[in-house]
Amino acid sequence: MKVLITGAGGYIGSVLQAVLTQRPEVAGQRVDAIALVDRVLPGAAGPRRVAIEGDLTDSAVLERIADFRPDTTFHLAGVPGGASEADYLVGRRTNLDATLALFEQLAQQRRDADRAPVVVYASTIAVYGTRLPPVVKQETPLQPPLTYGAHKRVCEILLADFSRRNELDGRTLRLPGIVARRSAGPGLTSAFMSDVLHALADGVPFEAPVSEEATAWWMSARRCAENLVHAAGMDLTGADPGRAWPMPVLRLSMRDIVNTCAEAFGPDRKSLVAYRPIESVEAVFGRYPVLDDAPSRALGLLDDGTPLALVLRALGREA
Amino acid sequence: MKVLITGAGGYIGSVLQAVLTQRPEVAGQRVDAIALVDRVLPGAAGPRRVAIEGDLTDSAVLERIADFRPDTTFHLAGVPGGASEADYLVGRRTNLDATLALFEQLAQQRRDADRAPVVVYASTIAVYGTRLPPVVKQETPLQPPLTYGAHKRVCEILLADFSRRNELDGRTLRLPGIVARRSAGPGLTSAFMSDVLHALADGVPFEAPVSEEATAWWMSARRCAENLVHAAGMDLTGADPGRAWPMPVLRLSMRDIVNTCAEAFGPDRKSLVAYRPIESVEAVFGRYPVLDDAPSRALGLLDDGTPLALVLRALGREA
Fold first, then answer.
1. B219-251: per-residue pLDDT in tens?
2. CATH architecture group of domain B179-218+249-290+304-314
3. Cys-Cys crosslink for A255: which of A8, A70, A199, A212, Cβ 3.0 to 4.6 Å?
């Protein structure tokens, strides 16, 4: 089993690498080699590792992928929402053009292979939009509110079509905000969701850009990576031909998160938090409705279990 | 008002040209010039006509479109479903790449213009899929069963995103099978819907590849072209940000059609029809459910009114 990871140098890519190092198995098969693709790949050397440094928009990178011939691809590379909105072409080249080029390149393999290459595609809950019903279901109409989400949705459709043609075996997972990355930097509006966990673990003051009641969908990077690996082996007999599912999530308010941090790190943590809601942030990250993720759970995908497990796992402190 | 028509040499493009010749008005404004784009444009010369012969996938064609600077574009050019399914790249180049390139080229105009260029995009009921509920509504999930429909759906999403960015003012209409084209030739499975009308008007025998009960969505080319023109001027204040609507349709069985032809051309017509259902044709063109086209009608889009009006208009015999 040969595995390819695009965006391997990113936050989720790094955790996925770690998961596959600890347990080198995908879809019940031993992982013999992992090719890592990213613009920068620090520390990517290692046994059974192939580092492909470069941009996915570069045809030379696609050629090296073709030479590697992955059985399973985890496609994580992408330009984030803020950057895609600010510069249409930058977003289009990676989130649309390079993704389609990757799908086509992998589909070429199909010709002389026993089965279609598996593609686990990291999409986003940004495909849903901000005008949502009280319960988001599998059939809820998607209204991506940004070009980022529109291009992700487009690639979900393209992957489903390659799967229908039996040229790829696609599995799209829609990722919520994943915690807890370190210093995501400006431009990632959801960064506060990671920042609050690090701040309260470290015992430093934190200013929340949302209210105490702000409700969002939460998942640790570790659980996210485990779900991605699981997705590669899911039995899709009779499944929705759209082949796109949200990750199961814990729907928690900021109050829930702060209380959980107090439970984990000490009751003094509560007094470290000041709430200074910013309306635009609250609108996007404060009003997540209920997610009916039963179809995702039926496929064996998991959330973090409890708020405490989420917080500890997000910070790499799990037992 | 400068108008561009892609696929102008095709069946619907020709009828649209005729409609705009009879009444040169779009969105309440006088049409000063019409640019026609197609690979072959017989008889395209005329006052206020600009013929751009060439393929939309050719950058030289896009440059001539940029020079023309249309206020309103009717984007009809496309590779049909059968051809797109048989040769993925042929379909992708026109239905996906060239369509996106056209959208981007027109969006460039926005920079030094008072308002976003209007794009009326001819999509297809092939975005819906074949596993439909008894009533198809605006929020019914789309499951394009062919690459043709997948690429059309993708471009609907891209056009909605350009519209949200206020770079284009997009209006997608999903076209049903349009009648009555002459000798569509092999590859167009829905050709029988046109053929039956010509055969019974001409008084020649006709073999139907579907059953008497086969129910489909019907619209004349004339009404289709009128709806396209109407769409350019629709007031979309408060409308669905997806900006895609089905054309209103008459849902008729083959029996309805044959009876209507008998009414129009003589009762002997009924005996000219033999039913030899082909399961694959019946599956796609024989089981259309009810279409809840209330949102389309609310925008002023129209069906043909009555089966008799449909038949006469489809054959160019309207009063």
1. 999 999 999 999 999 999 989 999 999 999 999
2. Alpha-Beta Complex (3.90)
3. A212
The tokens describing A261, both together, are: 């941090």
Tell me: pLDDT of B209 over 80: yes
A with B: how many residue pairs have Cβ under 8 Å apart?
38
Q: Which residue of B has its CA nearest to A144?
A: B161
pLDDT reading at B111 higher than 90: no
Look at residue B268 and tell me whether its pLDDT is greater than 90. yes
pLDDT value at position B190? 82
How far is Cα of residue B292 from the mean position of the Cα atoms in its chain?
Answer: 18
Q: What's the token pair of residue A131?
A: 């005008």
The reply to whether residue B157 touches residue A139, judged by beta carbons under 8 angstroms, is no
pLDDT at B187: 61
Active site residue A288: no
B129 Cα to chain A: minimum distance (Å):
11
pLDDT of residue A70: 97
Q: B177 to chain A nearest CA, in Å?
A: 22
Whether the domain at A2-177+219-246 and the domain at A179-217+249-292+305-314 fall into the same CATH topology: no
Q: Which residues of B make CB contacts under 8 Å with A?
A: 88, 139, 141, 143-145, 147, 150, 153-154, 157-158, 160-161, 164-165, 241-242
Do residue B241 and residue A143 have CB atoms under 8 angstroms apart? yes
Spatial contact of A84 and A90, defined as CB atoms under 8 Å apart: yes
Q: What is the CATH number of domain B2-175+219-246?
A: 3.40.50.720
* Residue to substitute from B103, B142, B157, interface A, most A β-carbons within 10 A: B157
The Cα A275–Cα A1 span in angstroms is: 49
* Residues A144, B153: C-beta atoms closer than 8 Å: no
Say if pTM beats, i.e. exceeds, 0.90: yes
From the list B141, B150, B158, the residue facing A150 with the nearest CB is B158
Q: Kindly provide the ipTM of the predicted complex, given to two decimals.
A: 0.94
**B141 with A143: Cβ contact below 8 A:** no
CB B49 within 8 A of CB B34: yes
Average pLDDT for chain B: 94
Which residue type occupies A147? T
Angle between helix A221-232 and helix A11-22 axes, rounded to 10 deg: 60
pLDDT-derived band at B36, boundaries 50, 70, 90: very high
A29–chain B nearest CA distance, Å: 32
Q: What is the mean pLDDT of residues B161-166?
A: 97
Query: For A102, how many CA atoms within 13 A lie in the half-sphere containing its CB?
Result: 34
| Domains of chain A, residue spans | 2-177+219-246, 179-217+249-292+305-314
Q: Which residues of chain A have pLDDT under 50?
A: none
- Say yes or no to pLDDT of B280 above 90: no
Task: Give the chain B residue nearest A147 (alpha carbons).
Answer: B161
CATH code, residues A2-177+219-246: 3.40.50.720
Chain A: give the shortest CA distance to residue B180, in Å. Answer: 31
Q: Which residues of A touch B143 (CB under 8 A)?
A: 241-242
* Domain A179-217+249-292+305-314 coded CATH 3.40.50.2300: no
At A304, list the tokens.
């973090």
Query: What is the pLDDT at residue B319?
Result: 54
Q: Mutate which of A89, A154, A159 to test chain B, going by most B C-beta atoms within 10 A?
A: A154
Asked if B8 and B14 touch (Cβ cutoff 8 Å), the reply is yes
Alpha-carbon distances, residue A26 vs A71, A115, A220, A227, B297 (angstroms): 10, 16, 20, 11, 51
